[in-house]
Structures are given as structure tokens and as C-alpha cells.
Amino acid sequence: MPQDPDELWVDEQAGPVVRPFAVARGRTGRRGAAIDLIAVVVTAEVPPPDPRTLGPEDERILELCVHPQTVAELASDLVLPVGVVRILLNDLLERGLVHVRRPAVTRAGRPDPRLLREVIDGLRAL
């Protein structure tokens, strides 16, 4: 039976059409500094780059990070694995398009317990 050309060939249940490996342009590791899951990312106040030099995910990150976002929030909003988001963030960081603020730590070098509680509560809310 011939299919209707106007009929969609994918639906919500089909999952992502573009695989995360392709979004990261084949890269599986990081080139820059490690970006913590609870690090806060904000778009840098610089002239906007040429849109032809950005992928759709890069553009979305810059839009979302006008207001500070954690790496975990970005991964959730983009529906991408955290590893892929970290790769994309490193690219944007190298170009000076975002700023990454590391999580607060105590004198012992560990994350502040209040911050960890907020992260856990936020993850549960997802």
C-alpha cells in the first residue's frame, strides 16, 4: 500500500533522528577542562557569532544560557547525554561564547552540602 507523502515517517516515540555521536561531530572525549555536572553556564556578553558557524544545539545552548543554567539542566532541556553537552560547551567556551562557573566548594575541597541538596531536589523534580 503506497504511503501518503504528507504523512510523517517519525513520531514522538521514534526517538531522536540525529544520534548524539553525530551532534558531537564524532568526538567522544573532551579537549578542554572538565565541566562539572553542577557547573553554571551563562552566555557571554559578546557580539553574536555568525549563525552559519553554529549548530542548532549550539544556538539552543546560547539561548538557554541567557539565564544561568547548570550542565544537568542543559542536558535535560536539550534531551542529550551529559557527555555530548560537555563537548558542545567546551567548543563554545573555546570560542568565548559562554562562561562556566565552577560549583562552590568547602575548604576541604568538597561541594557545599547545601548546593548538593539543591541539586538533588532539582533532579527529583525532573
TrEMBL record:
Pfam families: DUF742. It comes from the Bacteria. InterPro entries: DUF742, WH_DNA-bd_sf. Coiled coil: none annotated. This is DUF742 domain-containing protein. It comes from Actinomadura physcomitrii.
